[in-house]
Amino acid sequence: MILAIDPGSQKTGMALVEEDGSLVWKAILPSEDVPGKAAALAAEHSVRAVVMGNGTRHAAMQARVSAALRGAGLPADIPLVDEKYTTEMGKARYRAEHPARGLARLLPKGMQTVSEPVDDYVAWIIGQIYLGLVRAEDVGHKKV
């Protein structure tokens, strides 16, 4: 099992991902709560790797989570994953699970907005990228 983290300054997405890429658990937590939660989840679920996106404030979060893992007697190496297009992919996954209703469903997909934070979905995608199951090219972005 993989614990994936999408670091942020105020809020951070986390996801437990099976080796086949399926989701076990996901949540968005206040960033200050992440190190302790990461250590607890890693111990409770026999996580083989804790991985993190290389985006916003990743260096500080990587150091804090690594210290928490070491303090719990767990392996503290945290590989970084390229986060290119993961927010866009997270929004698409959110929209797939929460389709628009009413008149909003008539809008083209590109005009539909996501009213919720998607950091947890992004963490799930980061875990799948680490496992080699998802690539930035999968987003279908014209810049890829």
Q: How would you describe this structure to a colleague?
A:
α3 (86-97) packs across α4. 34% of the residues lie in helices and 19% in strands. The radius of gyration is 15 Å and the shape is elongated. It has helices at residues 34-44, 58-71, 86-97, 119-130, and strands spanning 2-6, 11-17, 23-30, 49-53, 80-81. A five-stranded mixed beta sheet has the order 3-2-1-4-5, with helices on both faces.
Q: Given the structure, what is the number of helices?
A: 4
SSE order: EEEHEHEHH
General shape: elongated
Q: Could you say what the CATH topology is called?
A: Nucleotidyltransferase, domain 5
Per CATH, the superfamily is YqgF/RNase H-like domain
* Whole-number total of structural domains: 1
The secondary structure category is alpha/beta
Helical residues, percent: 25-40%
Roughly how many Å apart are the termini?
29 Å
Task: Detail the poorly predicted runs.
Answer: none
Taken as a percent bin, the fraction of beta residues is 15-25%
Give the secondary structure arrangement, pairings included.
Layout: E1 2-6, E2 11-17, E3 23-30, H1 34-44, E4 49-53, H2 58-71, E5 80-81, H3 86-97, H4 119-130
Parallel strand pairs: 1-4, 4-5
Antiparallel strand pairs: 1-2, 2-3
Helix pairs in contact: 1-2, 3-4
